Amino acid sequence: MFVNITFFWLASYGMGLRWMAGTVLNERALGPVLGSMVYVMMIAGLSMVGVLCLWSAVLLSAKIRSYAICAALFASALCVADLLRELIMPSFPWLHVGYAHVDSPFAKLLPLAGVQADDWAIEFVAFLIAANLLSLAVKRSMHPALLIADVIILLLFVGLARLGPFTHPATPLQVALMQTAVAPPDKFRASLLGKHIAEIGDFAALHRAQLVVAPETAVPTTLRALTGAQAHYLERGVDDSRALLFGAFAEDSQGDVFNSAVLLQRLPGPPPTTQRTVYIKQHLSPIGEYAPTGFGWIAELFGIPLSNLRSTRDSPRNFLVFGVTIIPSVCQDLLYGEDLRTTANSTRIVVNLSNLAFFSNALAREQFLKIARARALEQQVPVLLTANFGPTASIGADGSIDRQLPNRLPGALEIAVTPHAGVTPYARFGNLFLYLALALTTVSVIVVLLRPPPAARA
């Protein structure tokens, strides 16, 4: 059984993160031999916590006769494994089951309880179905309690399908999203810095949008390193009716560097001035932005120029642009729905700046798009993605993809995005429903295990 559980987790992560394998095995990266070793070590490390949690659930379930409690126990073990893995090895919450169900009936749970509670519900139903099939195979009949549970779940989803939207549309905002399509070797080439800045400045001046957005690290240097002429060129596209949001690096007085989203907007005069507001990325990418202990050599082999970045939670959480609250995120910040939610009843959208060009496999972009759709459904607000090589897309408050640019090609996406006001239960309570499910499962398991056997009760 232990071998089967280990193989399950290894196969799950190996397949789900196979786009990473295509990157590290590339001849321009680590090569087939060293890349394979690094990839196997990474998958084994990510799987370790899940194996231990699921194996513990197997041992506990041996003394439990209730199929429903066993199903809840296994679902809880999988969710606890995700929580612990993120605590021990941050920045790998890519493979939540809920992301695969943004088009299924389970998507109705997202505005109520979020992706992680959706995970629990999906896994509970899956284990309950397995228990039904096991009962049919062994006893040639279904246990009455299982039939009751099936009916309750069916009625629950019928009720959820009837729930109306929790948010409502407001006045549209004109937005232009820029897909730069800069090749990774050219991104941090010093001789091309002026060209990158000129392209962003020209793009902002050309598109008559209220908000112009360029991707993560579109300006691949620190704000302090910009010359006066370069800063002026970026500001020339900002006026009383247009703001510019782009990715760059911030630097503090101690010399620490932060991956950031920078908003430039005009303040009324006299004289009119351009205000610069910075959002600092909260969740850094292992190897790419910081080197976990013992793994710094991988960043050196990759030749990654900025693998010693810092993060802080002291930065502004949201921007305000022409009366619309912009909830900013940079790349992997989008994977953390808890950080993006807000209970403010303001008109708002979520904007993500990313750069997935480092991952050559298109699966990474497809997964990222699914994650963005889940974020839209959780808060029932639009999500805008702008990325160097894609995905660059506009996602509606209902999780549907309104428009999207072709990947890997430079382009502009001009849209009228409709901000939404109102608060979903998930935005208000976060993962409370997940924690309640885990707590109820824990209490049920403890009560069953501490109950004396039938002979002792007699």
Please summarize what this structure is:
By secondary structure, the chain is α/β, with parallel strands linked by helices. The chain has helices spanning 2-16, 18-24, 31-61, 67-88, 110-139, 144-161, 184-187, 193-206, 228-235, 296-302, 337-340, 362-379, 425-429, 432-450, 454-457; strands at residues 167-169, 173-179, 211-213, 243-251, 257-267, 273-280, 319-321, 324-330, 348-354, 383-387, 393-395, 401-404, 411-417, 420-422. The strands form three sheets. The protein has a six-stranded mixed beta sheet, with helices on one face. It has a six-stranded mixed beta sheet with strand order 7-8-9-10-11-12, covered by helices on one side.
Describe this structure in words.
Helix 4 packs across helix 14 (432-450), helix 5 crosses helix 12 (362-379) and helix 5 (110-139) packs parallel to helix 14 (432-450). This protein is 45% helix and 17% strand. It folds into two domains: 2-166 and 430-457, no CATH class; 169-423, Carbon-nitrogen hydrolase (Nitrilase/N-carbamoyl-D-aminoacid amidohydrolase, 4-Layer Sandwich). The relative contact order is 0.13. The protein is an alpha/beta fold and 458 residues long. Helix 12 (362-379) links the parallel strand 9 and strand 10. A six-stranded mixed β-sheet has the order 6-5-4-3-2-13, with helices on one face.
Assigned CATH class of the largest domain:
Alpha Beta
Main β sheet profile: 6 strands, mixed
Average pLDDT, rounded to a whole number, is 84
Give the number of DSSP strands. 14
Approximately how much helix is present in the residues? 40-55%
Number of helices: 15
Query: What is the CATH topology assignment of the largest domain?
Result: Nitrilase/N-carbamoyl-D-aminoacid amidohydrolase
Q: Give the spatial strand order of the biggest sheet.
A: 6-5-4-3-2-13
Terminal-residue CA separation: 34 Å
Structural class: alpha/beta
Taken as a percent bin, the fraction of beta residues is 15-25%
What is the 3D form? globular
Radius of gyration: 24 Å
What is the H/E string?
HHHHHHEEHHEHEEEHEEHEHEEEEEHHH
Q: What CATH architecture label of the largest domain applies?
A: 4-Layer Sandwich
Write down the domain tally: 2
CATH superfamily of the largest domain: Carbon-nitrogen hydrolase
Outline the low-pLDDT stretches. Answer: none
